[in-house]
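Fold this sequence, please.
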Amino acid sequence: MLREAGRLALCLGRLGEAIELYRRALEQDPLSTASYHNLGSALQAMDRLEEAEAAYRKVLELAPQRVGTRGLLSLTLLALGRGDEALAEAGREPEEAFGLWALAIVHHGLGHAAESDAALEELIEKYSEDAAYQIAEVYAVRGEADRAFEWLERAYTQNDPGLTETKDDRRLRSLHGDPRWGAFLKKMGLED
């Protein structure tokens, strides 16, 4: 129950509340990989990157093959300036779609344009029906707002579950100054 309340708080952008709820959930169930994973996401959204790294590493200690965690850890490591580690973790992501997503972002962050393009192209070719939200994130990180909004709209049409992270997704921050951002949040019911 606490984990679900934390997820709702995270989706609504109440990050401090989400972190508190996840910490309380972990007091009740210290082996919950979902709670650690979501705690990492909330901490990452607040730029508490060292704490996010610790939460993701705890997930991997408990469940080394948990889908998405290595991808998120890689982006946290990139933000911490640890590019080589970020690249290694992205390459170890067990779910190909999340691995390509992480590689596209990490390579971009490291200035490897060709590798970023290749990962993004493969992500689109193989997973455009399942990863529209992640594709939008890649475009946003790369500063390609028009393409990011195109893919956010596609994610919306596809009812992509990633959209629950929209409000405080650090990978979408480059879009916040764009007039389309507020309109999209309103469309999602996340703004008045």
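The mean pLDDT is 96. The first helix runs from residue 2 to 11.
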